[in-house]
Amino acid sequence: MCDVDGIFVDLPEDTPSVVNKSSLHQYQSSLPSESNLSSLTLLNEVFQDNKQSLCNNFDQIIKSVPFDADNSHVSSWTSSLNKFADPISLLEESLGICEKCSSDQITPIGLHKFQRGKCTCPLDITENTKSANRESKQDSKGLSCFVKTLHSDSSNDESKSSEDQRHLFKPKFGRPRHLAKTNQPTTSKCTPIYQDVDLEKEDEIKAHKSNVAKVTFKTAKEQLLASNPAAKRTLGASRKAQAKFVSPMIGAQEKQETAEPEITDERLKHIDPKMIELIESEIIDRGTPIDWDDIAGLEMAKSVIQEAVVWPLLRPDIFTGLRRPPKGILLFGPPGTGKTLIGKCVAAQCNATFFSISASSLTSKWIGDGEKMVRALFAVARCHQPAVIFIDEIDSLLTQRNDTEHEATRRIKTEFLVQFDGAATGEEDRLLIVGATNRPQELDEAARRRLVKRLYIPLPDLNAREQIITNLLKSETNELTPQHIAEVASLTDGYSGADMRSLCAEAAMGPVRAVPLAQIISIQRDKVRPVNVQDFKNALQRVRPSVSQDDLGQYVQWNKTYGQGF
Ligand SMILES: Nc1ncnc2c1ncn2[C@@H]1O[C@H](COP(=O)(O)OP(=O)(O)OP(=O)(O)O)[C@@H](O)[C@H]1O
């Protein structure tokens, strides 16, 4: 039995253990507005876990709390607690977690924080509780609406005497857990303090908790859906084969939608806009235009191409009937001999759009979409006439059939041949397909038939190598005389054009390597010495030819059989 301000409250010996850490919040906020009885009962609730140890001192604690709504109650209360061996940890044990705010996510609240009367959780419970208290005070029923008879049933609350009501209390924030616990049978003579729980308050708490959870924590899926509702279609939903892909990346949908290019050309209406955009951005080559003089040697190949391809593209009115140009040419030969350069040069000379694509990327990069890509490529090229479609490694597309050929590859190949034939028969189309390969022997008969002009692009001869060195040295200060260049050219028999480029790049490093390490950062550009013949001789030790004689023999042989014959 405790005596607080003349109010006697039954404190059952063995009050059921109800751990209600949020009660401390309620207790604190109740002090300014609630009766002593409410506060006392709340305080009792706070300490229920520690009831045994508190039992003897409970009266003192209760008495020490000034229920006069001033701010000294917390300090008085803690000073009372000081009578215990370890009062702070005792209290913190009870307080450990802000239950109301943090039942789903643990937010420890230290005693010091609580003493300042401020819950630190995202929704300030103390503030909320205070405002709830203010509201409840305005309620005409006042405290009586919270009070229920300790031992009686809830139906006759209103008829209870004020004396009874001293023993009644219904917490503002009843918790389902309370109800469950109070209903537990006890072997002792303990009397449950709370027999009823305000269901409305329970709902309020549930809503509060879920609000806190929403404010403070979202699963990755929830975050994604909040920022990109369209992603719902890709998360857990089954996607049909024709369904449009919706990126699950945050913000990707907006990007996709804003990036949708507007199709103005009727010929592209049936083509996937994304593919059109891809072709426009990645496959159309808008690099520096190449001139015939940029290509060293290869005089015969250049003149054939000029006559067979460039002029007809420039003057389609003259080149009709028997003079009608081939729609496809094949450039074959060792790697790095200028096949791509020639393709670019043709496009530049004809003022044509240059489309450059690697056949192997059709079968690997656009898995499943290679067929559509081929269709889109030809469609876009028709919109950009005159156009040159350069297909590198064409052997990997128009390869001889074999048992291991993949179904997807076969379909791409079929589509390519269909498109090629369409371009070839379209009188108005000014499209040229240039195929390049290092393995002409792997091309099948269908490819050979369509690529009418098959030009061998050999390794550069002596003159061509001289020309390559001269061209590349134009951008470097050097001391090489024509004799030096001729000397280097004679030492590079068997080098491809690409090998020659590597050799010159290596030689150009000679003067830089000659600069003392300490000066490399500070030295002025014009203080670096010019490239000399010795740099080339040193470079020759490091850069070796990349094409073997055996390979060369095969090209020569294939050229004799299927090539143009020069
Ligand atoms: N005849 C040449 N004249 C000038 N430079 C050349 C010549 N051949 C090759 N090169 C140099 O080599 C580089 C690679 O040439 P290119 O890409 O045209 O060779 P490629 O035959 O298409 O090679 P790959 O078969 O490996 O695709 C060019 O950028 C150029 O610097």
From TrEMBL:
Domain AAA+ ATPase, residue spans: 325-461
Catalytic reaction list: ATP + H2O = ADP + phosphate + H(+)
Keywords linked to the UniProt accession: ATP-binding, Hydrolase, Magnesium, Metal-binding, Nucleotide-binding, Nucleus
Residue spans of biased composition, Basic and acidic residues class: 157-167
Subcellular location: Nucleus
Pfam family, one: Vps4_C
Predominant location: nucleus
Composition skew (Polar residues), residue ranges: 181-190
UniProt cross-references to InterPro entries, sorted A to Z: AAA+_ATPase, AAA_lid_3, ATPase_AAA_core, ATPase_AAA_CS, FIGNL1_ATPase, MT-severing_AAA_ATPase, P-loop_NTPase, Spast_Vps4_C
Keyword Chloroplast on entry: no
UniProt region (Disordered), positions on chain: 152-190
Cofactors: Mg(2+)
Extent of Basic residues compositional bias: 168-180
Family: Belongs to the AAA ATPase family.
Protein name, UniProt field: Fidgetin-like protein 1
Organism: Loxostege sticticalis
